[in-house]
């Protein structure tokens, strides 16, 4: 099995080259590779820019337990359509991924039914209850690449401290969902004048800021790596920037949707825009963009959180939090960061491919001879309208339905094979 990509452009380079892939390895990168074409799939890739396969360190695949929302099969198809060759799945499943049996089950299913590489993230505490720490060493041996109680915050600082001490020994990051639910409970959107006007209850920025500050201090106390999930506020960005300047082991992610949208999107009361953390103000959004540009925010992660249409097509106050992001991530991030002139495509690749792998020690993220063939091919010029009906994800809960974007994922090569080609999922 071999693939030859003809006359393509590696992101950040201005010459056209051919890329030869044999089995699951990039074997040659050269101008005009001449080779006996038997058994080789030759692709005219002259319209495409090639990225190292995107890696999403924060998705909810919902399996086991919530297969009506998403399955490993549907979620990884959605990932492939979005250009992701790797996804890291959060443990808020049922049963919770807090024991090695579930981690092994997820890995087995991913191997047999998944179309991209899946790296499970295990829970920090049993059933994500914030009390009893899981068997973190065993979970790491089973294949967990990180730990998180995502959806919940460990409110007991002593429990978080102890977990960080274990994580340091195991050399894995703890991924912190920063939300003091004592402040946020009952809220549906960002707290402020708009929430008041719409008659919706608010979630103040401090809900997040307080825990970001605490976890930075616990990282300092334990000399351990804390990764802050889905940063949404200006103050969080400032705290993380200062922590990095102080030499602490803090990394952070932002979602594509928080980079492009603000609370104003809630004016139509669409439950598909109800997400946690909530969309904030333009001032916060500008701070997030600045944080990405100056390196305070290391990477982009979708927080892909599918729900069924039945769950979402209710009044906003009754709808669950979360939106799908895999299939729009590249286009949305490109619009927010590249079309606006803030980043180059090459810098975007760092945020989508290289840094998330570095944080979780997942190999790859580079296009070089001898490296694994995980590649994402995009047409940076294609204009299109988002149609959630076409999503591979079972979740159609996106705020971007009908949005026009320029730049679209056209092909995804996972372990040396096309999983998506010409914009279509391969059978
Ligand atoms: N982001 C969300 O709004 N929801 C996530 C949980 C989470 O990441 O907090 C979910 O699992 O539905
Ligand atoms: Zn979360």
TrEMBL record:
It catalyses: (S)-dihydroorotate + H2O = N-carbamoyl-L-aspartate + H(+). Its EC number is 3.5.2.3. One of its GO terms (biological process) is 'de novo' UMP biosynthetic process. Its cofactor is Zn(2+). Binds 2 Zn(2+) ions per subunit. CDD domains: DHOase_IIa. Belongs to the metallo-dependent hydrolases superfamily. DHOase family. Class I DHOase subfamily. Pfam families: DHOase. This is Dihydroorotase. One of its GO terms (molecular function) is dihydroorotase activity. InterPro entries: DHOase, DHOase/Allantoinase_Hydrolase, DHOase_cat, Dihydroorotase_CS, Metal-dep_hydrolase_composite, Metal_Hydrolase. Signal peptide: none annotated. Residues 50-236 form the Dihydroorotase catalytic domain. Catalyzes the reversible cyclization of carbamoyl aspartate to dihydroorotate. Pathway: Pyrimidine metabolism; UMP biosynthesis via de novo pathway; (S)-dihydroorotate from bicarbonate: step 3/3. GO terms for cellular component: cytoplasm.
